[in-house]
Backbone:
């Protein structure tokens, strides 16, 4: 079933829900899901409504014009998405394949509503996998001297392929501010720790040193502050004194996969809103 | 802050949300929380709205008269609750004290918005505890021959005390259909297994026999079909071959407490709706 | 590092550990891991010891002869395994690919110490996947009339390929007693429920009907009593009223994968002992 | 049943287990539980053995003399404990009662093998609770000017009462180095975050600011580096954008209780060994 999805954040005011519901009703919307959240401390309102387009008599071209007066009167940030528009995704990977494989399989199994248009890697070991899933594979070895140039070419290819979302599936390069600026809130990374614990490189080694009893993974949007972007999802699993660093690395793969794939799915289903460097997830 | 809470279930129809939101807006409601659920397969709609009474200009006496026309036109089951009305609770316990203590402490800590009016037990060992928390303690030894008579007296006392909710905190007696009929969807029990596994008596022994790797607890509304009422909450924890029956019993206390206390809180906060012997939890 | 692994169960008696430790020490064993379990109620003792073969001066041919006197005096069931002997595995699958893909990827990532020799299926949709991983794929459409004959051919191929372990990765056919008898405690299945809840077919439908708040998966050894074999591992995840049957099926794939892959790894690492239709897992 | 418990850490060497097992066997020990751990990277060996004293013909006075030669030859750190010696515990609390109540109830229910000799608090609100459980309550208001003097009196009372373990049950004062030095590895604290995330004061506020999706609690031994002592246990629970700081505080109480009570139980059952600022837990 094709659906429309309206995402709104604005100052919380009386009559908001009535106005939105009335607007959709007037145009024949059959609402399938509606979630809202009020943060009473900061006085903010967040909403996600999904409705069937079957019987909805407001086409895409007209939506904005019709809705804009309401939006303006409530000072809304808003956007409308259509389930028929499958976002175009580029996955960036390095040597580790587990997150990439997981995303490719979930996509094939129908769990991720998107097109996976490109796989970009600074290694060539995932080439056969890309071929198996019939996805273009771009191999860009990166080093200190060619990094800016490689990013130029990557940005060019992302633009050419009209990429909507970049997923860093254990991609081991730090993106430049210029790159990040091109895809604000549209780059999702997985960090292999329970952030904000163990930021930076080699978090499993740091976790081992500290002797923690749980290890975790965190998926988040990428900002220019490394490991500081809005957190989307986190998961942990139990470890013990028996686990050496290599065990943490192996076990950690399962939580990395879980935290990343859920984040990607929620993004693709337009379930994520933002405020104050945090996320609201309407799952 | 005092709030009103409107709970609705009805056939799903266009315009429902608009009508409800419009109604509340007209009367000055400042909505704090709103949750809805559509079950598209059975065509049902469920909603919970909570709003501040501050500025709401429809008093209790008038609400029903004003809302009834909308309710009728959409064939709603509905009720309105007020946070100021603290439900009156009776806790039934037997020998085991852990669930009872947990509820009493959570109540004292402000987690459970209710009055705990009575503790009823077929043992007298919790008497000092009741005294410490200054709650009436009714000790009714039950046996095969006096069971009907005891239930009569209990029902009498529940009525006298205008009890809204009966919580069976590991109460080891089966209530008669007559008793259950007096408090439909107002008796919450905790069963010490992950239902529907290990119904009936001695579930930890059965779990040990079967060699399961997780044990659980289930809180549910009591119906006349033992262990078959609508499930409210379930939780599990990991066990191993090292755990004997006594370890299962000890460890299980933690999940029993967790499953029961969440169920009681959700009930008291009017977060639970029903259909098809199942619950909708707006947590 | 190559290791030897000694697995023992026997009546619990004083001096057991001293005798075993003394035996290994005399032959130069450098013990890497040792786990033991006493079940005091039934008076049983279980042990798994793993030691480095580096410096161990008792070769395979001589081990049994040297250890047998000790074993006999303590009435041990025992076996010795060598990490160098990679078990040969056949995976049986049907339409669903998620468990199969997960096992293949974990194998490739080095998580499963075995050879995956064969993939057997009553459907042909996993053929390309088998080809990608360069594993023989045997497609045997099964129906009521050819079932016995197909099992004959399967058993023949398993024997030819000297298969040590059969993994049913959501294989949707029930194996005959004759088949099961050929691989006692060497067939691992994953059932898509938290057993013993929802045995039989369509457990997600049954879980949906009952309105449970957690769904689970159970990996177990296959016996002739359907869904009644010794449980190896179980896992659950939280669901809510929002989840339709299709959501349960999708979410359940993650716990099925987890429960099955852990069971397979523990079996391959010789971490599982048995008693009373239950497992002891030395993880 | 009365038991002896032997705890050992030493460099890993061949023949260790054989020597220990042989020693216990010779003196008639019936081993109930034995756990060992090798850390192959640092070449360390850890062991906990528990045996029935029934039939064991080596009395307390003689144990050390008999075992010392073995201990010396393997350079062991070791100690022997007896289940009959119930450790004497002092619980320090401040305003929050939830951890204190939980420990008191678990003690009463038989989960904690100890005497709770004292409750020390810088507030007097837990006085009735202490009275209910018949435990001495020492109320010491602390401020900047009297802190050293109060610690003097507390240390005096701990000594007088021969306290073996100090449990900080959400005690909100930082102990001085002098105090900590008196009870090395015998002061257990619970920090209300998943350490090393959110060290310091107000971790729930910090977690809320950062927008994490899980909150946690960590129990650890107290050292002079605040929040840096060896971690004993950690637990987490899921939160969402709906949770305000007050919700985090309320929900967090459940994980604080769980992490602290498990740590205390493991300590009392002599299940914890140390190395490199980390713990080995033989649970």
Residues:
């Amino acid at each position: 079933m094709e659906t429309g999805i309206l995402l709104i954040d604005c100052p919380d005011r009386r009559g908001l829900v009535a106005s939105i519901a009335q607007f959709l009703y007037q145009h024949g919307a059959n609402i399938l899901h509606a979630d809202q959240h009020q943060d009473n401390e900061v006085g903010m309102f967040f909403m996600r409504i999904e409705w069937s387009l079957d019987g909805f008599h407001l086409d895409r071209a007209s939506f904005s014009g019709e809705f804009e007066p309401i939006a303006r009167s409530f000072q809304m940030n808003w956007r409308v998405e259509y389930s028929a528009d499958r976002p175009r995704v580029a996955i960036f990977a390095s040597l580790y394949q587990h997150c990439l494989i997981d995303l490719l399989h979930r996509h094939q199994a129908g769990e991720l509503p998107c097109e996976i248009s490109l796989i970009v890697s600074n290694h060539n070991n995932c080439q056969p996998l890309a071929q198996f899933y019939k996805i273009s594979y771009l191999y860009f070895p990166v080093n200190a001297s060619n990094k800016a140039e490689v990013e130029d070419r990557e940005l060019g290819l992302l633009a050419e392929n009209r990429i909507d979302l970049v997923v860093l599936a254990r991609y081991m390069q730090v993106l430049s501010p210029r790159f990040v600026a091109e895809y604000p809130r549209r780059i999702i990374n997985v960090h292999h720790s329970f952030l904000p614990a163990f930021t930076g490189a080699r978090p499993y080694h740091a976790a081992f040193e500290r002797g923690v009893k749980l290890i975790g993974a965190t998926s988040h949007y990428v900002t220019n502050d490394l490991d500081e972007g809005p957190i989307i999802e986190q998961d942990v699993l139990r470890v013990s004194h028996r686990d050496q660093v290599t065990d943490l690395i192996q076990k950690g793969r399962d939580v990395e996969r879980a935290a990343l794939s859920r984040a990607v799915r929620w993004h693709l289903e337009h379930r994520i809103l933002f405020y104050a460097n945090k996320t609201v997830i309407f799952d």
